[in-house]
Structures are given as C-alpha cells and as structure tokens.
Amino acid sequence: MTCSKSVLPRNFYTHDTHTVARELLAKHLVRCIGDAELVGMIIEVEAYGGGDDPASHAYKGVTPRNRLMFGEGGFAYVYFTCGIHHCFNVTTQKQGVAGAVLIRALEPINGIEMMRRNRRMTRLHDLANGPGKLTEAMGMTKRQKKNSRSTNQGEATHHFQPTSPKISTAN
C-alpha cells in the first residue's frame, strides 16, 4: 500500500484561524507509517489565535515553544501536555501572525487495526475521541512537530486530504 498523495494546498492554511478550523471539519487526516495508511475524518477542532486569545500558547508572544505558531500556516505544531498526552495542531495564518487549530477528534476510517494496537483497545468510538487519544491512535509525538502538511520526515508523514462531505451544519 502506498500513502495517498492528495493534499490540501499551502494557501488553504494561510487564512484566518477560525475559517481554517471550520474548513478542516470533515477533511481526512492521513498519517503514513511505513506501508500503513491511518486515516480519520476530522470531527472536532478548536481554533487558537494569538495575542487576543488568552487560551492560545501565543498569547504572551513568541517563545521557543510556540515559535512555530508565528510561522507560515500548514505545519504541525505538536506539544506534550500534562505530562501524559501529545496534542496535534496545524498552524494557520501568514508568516508573523500567530494561529493554530487543535485537532480534537477523528472518526477512524482506515488503518483501524493499527490504531487499536496503538491505543491498546478495541472499541472504535474511543479510539480518537479526544486530542490525546487521537495522537496515540495515529502514532504522533513531538517528532512530527514542524512537519509540513505533506512532507515526508523520516519514517512517517501526515497530511490533510480534501473531501467532499455531504454534511449540514447548524450556524
């Protein structure tokens, strides 16, 4: 099996963080590990801006930890939290403007058996229904930080695929 190469264009990520967050819903997050392709549909996200968002890592300005949030949109921003979980974000905005979208939950689509092994559980609903569960199921750690949305970095790559979902939203 070869990993799908269909990816969202770089300019998809360089818009307002809240816009990117809404547009990521129902897209597919694809992670390739060797010949395995893990795929999940994004079903929950959180948008984090910069200086005007007290919940954002970028709220107090640039630090070594959050520097990536101030770079060009479309890169993985992965961090370790509470001493137990990794969280996977994708950066947004243009160079110099902080923003990131936390991918909070996925609906597993492909590579489910590997996700089950990674999480050491079998219940499908619980595989990726939280940010820490998602990164564990997808085998993500801080090693994926700074990876482009389509760059192969050693043994693994990840990217977002465009989809044509048939969903309705209540706004």
β content, as a range? 25-35%
Query: What's the total number of strands?
Result: 6
Identify the CATH class: Alpha Beta
How many domains, as an integer? 1
What name is given to the CATH topology? 3-methyladenine DNA Glycosylase, Chain A
Radius of gyration: 15 Å
Order of helices and strands: HEEEEEHHE
CATH architecture: Roll
Please identify the oligomeric state: single chain
Largest sheet descriptor: 6 strands, antiparallel
| Strand order in the sheet with the most strands | 3-4-5-2-1-6
Low-confidence stretches: 148-157, 162-171
- Helical stretch tally: 3
Overall pLDDT confidence: 80
CATH superfamily: Methylpurine-DNA glycosylase (MPG)
Principal-axes geometry comes out as: globular
Structural class: alpha+beta
